[in-house]
# Entry
Amino acid sequence: MGNMVGFQETDIDNLAHLKALVNQYIQQERYAEAEPLLIQLLRHFETTQGTQHNDTASCMNYLAGIYDRQARYAESEALYRKTFPIFHRNLGIEHPYTATSQHNIGVACYRQGNYAEAEPFLMGALESYRAIYEGGDHAFVATALHSLAELRRAQGAMEEACVLHKEALAIRLRVLAPQHLDTANSYRHLAEIALERQDYAIAEAHYRSALGTYEARGRYHARALECLSALAQVYEIQGIFTLSEPLYQQVQVRLEEQLYNDQLNTVSGLNTLAELYKRFGRFDEAESLFLSLFAILTQQRGEAHPDTARLLSNIGHLYALQSRFYEAEPFYVQALEALEAHFSEDHPDIATLLEQLGEVVLAQGRREEVSALLLRSFEMRTRLNGRQNAETVATRDHYVLAALQMNQNPNPLLHALYLAR
# Structure
């Protein structure tokens, strides 16, 4: 191993100094500087302790965490896959280190959009944590529940996601401080699910519970700005513009302050500002931010990742709002193809994209294609939510109206249900 200046493998004091320096760089988010030092520490442990030692595996986990923070998920996954069998062999399956490595593999797979591969690792980690911490009241159990909930949500299983998030929140309220970030994250995700279900009172309450914790971390905290924007959306949907508009303006001012100072560097922050620009009709600025985001997500997660696909859909919607239908269509098509490749079964995002694509196709005068897209969306929403669901009914009516306007014969049963409203 090539030693850094002043560092000898047998010098315990310098080894401790190196570890302290790594911790300092990580706390300061100086990951590029921490990485080579961690690699050097890893080589040290491989040489002195062996490749199958717990210290070596722990160092790998630390390095994988650095890759996580830089969205280098494929590299972090590769390291977590090395540590899991080491801990499993040395400590057994029912040990926190083993369970955490198992959990981290699942999270890395999830972040890359590999949901089917993530599932057994996340479920296995949850099972191990519950066996380790009898009674289940432990922060690690809550974290595993939270991760599994987000996987289920990404897969479109909203009911199960809600149940898992509620269980995670209940544990966090018992074992963590009231203002803990993990507790705020549980509230935020439950608020997002409530908003999707149109349970606006619950969404508002949960967003407000999360907001206080995030804002205590600073005026520009990314999650605080997300919550403020989402809370504004809750009010806007209900037509309470006296509450929504000041919140939107507040978020825009804070994000633009960061942008002006070249400090707006998070995907969520850029996306929130782009959505605000789109909402206020500042389409050129929104387009610039969305395209910058697309470059970032393509590099970090790849063009086929669900997050990239959803961004493509947002760009398509931006063009559609400006009646740039010919430009919007390829973005919707690419997004649809990416999501269909990821989700072998029905998914709400696919149903939404089918409708959006149908509207763009209709605007271009290709009437014969529209009803097929809308019927597919309706059938998918029926399988996901049932025929009485508000979104299912809206899609059904959209399909019937489109067919009638094009002098086509809609499905007789759906036509009858539409007429019987």
User: Anything to note?
Assistant: The CA atoms of residues 358 and 370 lie 5 Å apart. The chain is about 80% helix and 0% strand. Residues 1-12 have pLDDT under 50 and may be disordered.
